[in-house]
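Notes to self after the Tuesday call (sharing in case useful).
The group wants a holo model before anyone commits to mutagenesis around the pocket. I volunteered. Ligand is S-adenosylmethionine. Logging inputs and output together so the record is complete.
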Amino acid sequence: MTTVRDKNIDEEAASLRAAMVRELRDLEAITADSVAGAVAAVPRHLFAVGEPLKAAYAANQALVIKRDEDGTALSSLSATHIQAVMLEQAGIEPGMRVLEVGSGGYNAALIAELVGKEGASISVDIDAEIVERARKCLDAAGYEQVQVVRADAVAGVPELAPFDRIIVTAGAWDIPSAWLDQLSERGRIVVPLRMRGLTRSIAFDRAGGGSEEELVSDSYRLCGFVPMQGAGAYTERLIHVTDGLALRVDDQKQDFDTDALAAAVRSARLEVWSGAAFDLPDELELFLATNTPEMVMLHGSKDLVDQGLLALSVTRGVPALVSGGSFAYRTKRANEETGGFESGVLAHGPDAEQVAARYAELLRRWASDHQRRGAARISYRPMPAGTAEPSQGVVAKRLGAVAFSWS
Ligand SMILES: C[S@@+](CC[C@H](N)C(=O)[O-])C[C@H]1O[C@@H](n2cnc3c(N)ncnc32)[C@H](O)[C@@H]1O
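Result:
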């Protein structure tokens, strides 16, 4: 029975929802009418139980559903902004069969709106509690047709395959072969893939219009997700250099001379300015981090910054070129003439000049040739487990290699 209070809540929710759709259109997270229609239709607050309506309809707010004992988020209702972006990347059409990896209920309901009566929205989660919660929320919101399955998605959901779209909503480090096996010929996988410490939501299609094993993409977007659990979980190495300084590294085999690097950080610092504009930091970061396997993420403490040993950029992590006992990383300074910024390099160690020169050359190359959104073309080539090798523009994964080319 709908009470007067429920009616008020429904009306307020509908008005907040309409405002959220307008905001997402303004932000260009939504460009397709189909996605706008889905976001306008699904009552998100019924998937954000116990949260204020304003939080449920804040376009950029993720809501944590479950944390582990250390307080790390294991499951969240993703922000509508990134959900809309990924649905746009997926290009879902009526009648499609879509698998969502990671369940909150809400995104699966959006998918149900997009595929319509003839299609199928299937959601899989590794966590029984999350599956139960998603099921309850979907039923309460009237999406009984959505199937929610409990399983480790590393094996996909073979009993309900094939899928025209697989949308992954947990941070993945690799692409399990089951996803490729269960993808229809002209299918697409949208996956937040972590590469050398950076995550991008990448929309992959099979090369050759579906005839080849290789996946190709010309759409990638900045995003952040809770990490994949289960057999596909991957922990990056955190290499301690000295108090307040660490390297975050993807590659399990790469060796570092940590004693020499610890000495280098306390040695004189070389500063080199590139003469190139510093802009679009997320695109630049992707270019730098994936350029060479010698590029790893450098993380430094505020303490070392305050001591004048490192620049502020290291506190969030910055791609650093490490060669023997020397390293270089990027910085920036205001450019009075343009009103923007100029990129530069800070380097330490016996080969500071060489690493700084190599880094500055990359900064200049990016600024002159690739400084725009979406300049990377990303591909994924499945390979026998453990055989992929990192090289220039190639990030090695366990089950394949991610290759970058820049236009
Ligand atoms: C960000 S949440 C999903 C949000 C959801 N799609 C929504 O509608 O907002 C990520 C989910 O991925 C799940 N997950 C993590 N690893 C998984 C795995 N290997 N297989 C299936 N689900 C997994 C987590 O339990 C968590 O619930």
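Two things stood out.
The first strand starts at residue 63 and ends at 67.
The two ends are 59 Å apart (CA to CA).
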